[in-house]
Amino acid sequence: MTGPWILNEPLTILATGDVPYLGTALGRLGGHELMVHCASEPPDLRVFLDGRLVYEVGMPTPGGAWFKACRELGYHPEAHWDLDPALILFRQVLPVLAEGWRENRLPFEGNGVPEDVVCLASVQAAWEAGVEAVGERMQGVPGGQLVADCFDGLPLRAVVLHDDPARREDFVGTGVDEPLMGIFLHLGGSRSRRVTLAKASVVGTGGLRWCPWELGGDWTEDGREFHATLRPEAFLWAAGLSREAPPGFAAAFLDGLKVVLGMVEPVVEAYRATFPTGVVWHRDPLARYLNHMIVDVRMADGRALLILDDGTDIEVAGLKSGSVCVP
Q1: Side-chain half-sphere CA neighbours of 322 within 13 A
Q2: What is the mean pLDDT of each run of 10 residues along the chain (327 residues)?
Q3: Which of 287, 282, 289 is nearest to 312 (CA)?
Q4: Contact (CB, 8 A) for 7 and 97
Q5: Beta strands, E only, 40-85
Q6: In this structure, what DSSP letter does residue 206 have?
Q7: Which is it for the CA torsion 164, 168, 174, 178, positive or negative?
Q8: Which of 12, 58, 100, 111 is 20 to 30 Å from the Cα of 195, by its Cα?
Q9: Domain spans of the chain?
Q10: pTM of the model
């Protein structure tokens, strides 16, 4: 098992079997029952949660029921670095369940997840590749060696996505007037010395762009885009380096930032797209609302809220009590 056990219930193995061509295991995690089947020829892996299939080979991520179970058992993306629900399943839960197997092996690739899965490890691998590319690009550039050392000292620890229109707080609890939508990359060796890169916007303000983001700090908006709230020197501090930047550092840093984010962004977007619908804390709002029923309509502070069957709500602009709105 890799990393600390962060869920608030232990994993208990109830039964295990390992016969030619098939490995099986049954376990309990809190109030949930887990079952895994693994066949070596052809490579096959199926995971069931409370009798429902949540993963089989070829899926880009475990099903939404597993994500909800992790949330129920204490997983918080803001607090738990280097782990997400997929990594909890593939790097922690399944290796323990399959620990006694000898005939069959879990079909995991080098980063500890099945080949087709997109998860936090995928984004971290893209970040590391970007950092390596920055090191090569900075050779001979004024201030470039310090930029390379800076990025090398800033591992990507967490990807936090905020896209819940009902939420009126940013990722550190600061109140905002409108729902804050965005992707936040947490970097650093420790939570006390970290920086954040954000691709964020307020609903209705247009497109998103990447910028350094200060934890708990104010953000400003100009031309429907966000200004950076962190200076490049803050990244030196987070990397454990002197904050005294030589001439040329700022320009080289921004150039390096563009390089690494250019490599990371496609993987981040793929990662975001794999999160299951119905997980209200990670998902594109439109996709979250598909295939759900409206079960109630409420008025709150002059706003009409359509309540969906998964407990989320949609604010309908311009709809007042007693009026009828036809899409």
Answers
A1: 0
A2: 87 91 92 92 88 92 91 86 93 92 79 89 96 94 92 93 57 53 83 82 51 48 45 88 86 91 92 70 50 76 70 58 35
A3: 289
A4: no
A5: 44-49, 52-56
A6: -
A7: positive
A8: 111
A9: 11-97, 120-274, 292-327
A10: 0.76
